[in-house]
Amino acid sequence: KQWYQRRVAITAGRTNLARHQDIMSKRYEGTSGPAYLFTAVVNVKCMEPRLAMLFTGQHSISAVSCTTCNTGLGWKYVRVPSPSLRFKEGKFLIESAYTFKENPWELTFA
Questions:
Q1: For the segment 34-54, what is each residue's pLDDT rounded down to a tens digit?
Q2: 79: which of 10, 22, 60, 99 fits an S-S bond (Cβ 3.0–4.6 Å)?
Q3: How far is 108 from 90, CA to CA, in rounded Å?
Q4: Residues 6+ apart with CB under 8 A from 84
Q5: 100-109, pLDDT tens digit by residue?
Q6: Of the candidates 65, 60, 61, 63, the residue with the CA atom closest to the CA atom of residue 17
Q7: Rounded to an integer, what distance in angstroms lies between the CA atom of residue 105 and that of residue 92?
């Protein structure tokens, strides 16, 4: 059996960022517009956590940037203000302006 995995990559430099299946939601807003919520990403570095006032209250977030080109991509949710938002903790908000979906470039065999 074989299948193709779709990937999400960073526009600048085409650095691999995540598997398409790691997109948890496409209905988020970042500082510059539409964003994705990811369960996991690769090739990023997280800065020190800081408090930020977001649409749903004050959150503790870490800025996230590409390890290859240092492009600021969004943030990682470290701590959220209420129990109903706990699902966000440890997730990554990546702004869609900095990404593109790469249709299958990796062939995987199982």
A1: 999 999 999 999 999 999 999
A2: 60
A3: 28
A4: none
A5: 776 654 444 4
A6: 65
A7: 23
